[in-house]
Amino acid sequence: MSPVAAPDQINPGIEDVVADAKFHHHGADPISDQTMVINMGPQHPSTHGVLRLVLEIDGETVVSLAPDIGYLHTGIEKTCEAKFYQQVVPLTDRIDYLSPMTNNTAYALAVEKLLDLEIPEKAQWLRVLFNELMRLNSHLVWLGTHAMDIGALTVFLYCFREREQLMRIFEAVSGQRMMTSYIRIGGVSLEPPLGLYDQIRAFLLDFPSKIDEYEGLLQNNPIWIKRLKGVGYISPKDAIALGVTGPPLRAAGIDFDVRRDMPYSSYEKFQFKVPVSNDSDVWARYVLRMQEMRESVKICLQALDGMPEGRIVADAPKIILPDREQMKTQMESLIHHFKIVTEGFAVQAGEATSSVEAAHGMMNYYVVSDGTAKPYRVHMRNADYSNLQALETMCKGRLLADVVAVIGSIDIVLGAIDR
After folding, report:
1. Residues of the chain falling short of pLDDT 70
2. How do beta strands 52-58 and 61-68 pair?
3. Cβ(298)–Cβ(208) under 8 Å?
4. What predicted TM-score, i.e. pTM, was given to this entire model?
5. Which helix (H) or strand (E) holds 352?
6. Rg of the chain's alpha carbons, rounded to an integer?
């Protein structure tokens, strides 16, 4: 009979496993008289998907916090290098699936810089219109899920009621509810169908009353106020140092909005306010986003009232797919279509960046061309990643239950974080 093996012989790596289990981010011992290390997520409802938080707590007080990302691994940026430029557009839909057209716009702007394309005014206004509708879509999901995390389930149902109307608008203009790919290099993919502008206007005129309804449920609710006010504070200095952008930055008193300060797609022609607060807590981020939704409604109505006539794509037959009717009668159009689909279009060598103001904050796309029909490099920088790293600063010293409220106030989409 063979002798019984020692534990370290059965599993020689057991010490390494124990060492890895320690809270290496901060050097904390998981078994201590003073603090305890716990995992929150990735399947916890308040982590909204695939985020794991490693929390060191003293009783119920958060001593330190480290987000653990790296769960999706979709590899989109690398995949872009194997696609023609126009084939990258559907991939950008997946980055932030609540604002696909905003991602489309940011990518298209960078490639259009390399191509030196002049975009028709109507296409630019359509981009503004649908980018703002995307902002409403994203903020509605934020408000609904944030309220649900705090325990206000009715608001969640109401928000998705209005979001459904937006989904129908997106489906009408693009054929898809979520992965729309509506914004294309050189313009937009389709002329809006008859009656869509009236449908959008009807929604926009009614929507402010719905915002009133949400605020009626939340604004004076003592539980909502108690869970949000004074929670998750971050100083303006820390917010800038951590690269925070979007509503969390403006709620910290930093008056910066890409749409106004670095305008693109004709945003300089629209009148709107950029809400700013100095409270820099969860409540301030809630109030600020509610104000932003009202401003988005104003922008959309301006876009509908002043929508220019004309083309929806640039006049570039070797880059833009020809009209289907032209292909039936013109051999040249048929040849351009065949070559664009099978060979793509070459982009002159160089590099370009673009910046847009997404619902979550500043979004950047960096595209490098080596002169071929496929991008040499595509890098996407979303606000979600940098905003998430501010989570520890916002939560340190607060109660464990406050972490749920703070995560909701940051409004993250993990697809935009782990690529």
Report:
1. 1-33, 44-46, 48-49, 71, 73, 419
2. antiparallel
3. no
4. 0.89
5. strand 350-358
6. 24
